[in-house]
């Protein structure tokens, strides 16, 4: 998933990155042993992550990092619910929970005219539509109070407005989303930003005011928009770290850590990580075979590394799976990433045969998944999805927040 300029709120991760398969599509075979990251980080600012098949027993999600969150009615310590199967996504901002997974009652957000508010969050392959509500968000020892969240598929707004549905099919249930919700931890704080504050073409198809089930486009202030809850933590509020163990080929599952804050405690220092400055949307540039590509971004919500197209890479597309590459032998891709702060660093990743990697239906943490990337405003991009995170500590610094590596936004690894 990816935060985009203006009204392109959420994207790539679920569009070409939502690799979910019916269990009936998998062949037989024993699962590989699950891996656990050595020396997993602990502390009140640390939440466990698991890369597994996801919460739906009828579907299997490939390369998705899942966690749990607790939501409470604002100010309540008893009217609370802990929800698992939440996809951790550094490419979007804000908490979104399926209404089917939510049993606790949360107050609806209303505008100055007492109209209930709803949102259409647009991904490249569909939209999440539903009410905006207010909740306290608790993740281990961290708390964000009275936060706007999206309740996806909420029954009080069953009719999706045409300028929302025209952006894609609704992904309003577990089968469509592949998760019980999304925890968006991008560098941007709000999910739409200034584009939705002022009325105009860029604010259309995002936030809605509703009366008697009929919803019309409207504006939404920054404070009322669905947003990254980390920015509202009392401490540890300047960014996040995702730590996952290395994965060779395909494994049943791996566990890691979601760490809040950068340089705020003894367990979240930058160490030797290199800081790559980004623009407000988390974009930097990548050089591949002498050509500079922009935008590039690190996105835990994408479950493969998506880059360029078959004509550029020379890789064949998998038969029946047009979103994956299928080279005859694993290929090493050498690239150089370049930050807006002048930082430059060479790295590499491997692209394997997608169908071969998916051969064991019991493996859900898979390194080497790669596929043709989308274009953004006509430009080819590098979307460094979850396989890029394996074996690394990946930092995402929030816009305007001070850290030992400078003021966000930036990414580091």
CATH topology of the largest domain: Cathepsin D, subunit A, domain 1
What is the CATH top level name of the largest domain? Answer: Mainly Beta
Q: Provide a count of the helices.
A: 5
| Count of beta strands | 33
Alpha-carbon distance between the two ends = 19 Å
Proportion in helices: under 10%
Q: Please compute the radius of gyration using only Cα atoms.
A: 20 Å
Beta fraction = 35-45%
- CATH 2nd-level architecture of the largest domain: Beta Barrel
The count of domains is: 2
* Major sheet details: 7 strands, mixed
Shape summary: globular
Please state the average pLDDT score.
Answer: 89
| Weakly predicted, low-confidence segments | 1-39
Strand order of the largest sheet: 24-23-18-19-29-20-26
Structural class: mainly beta
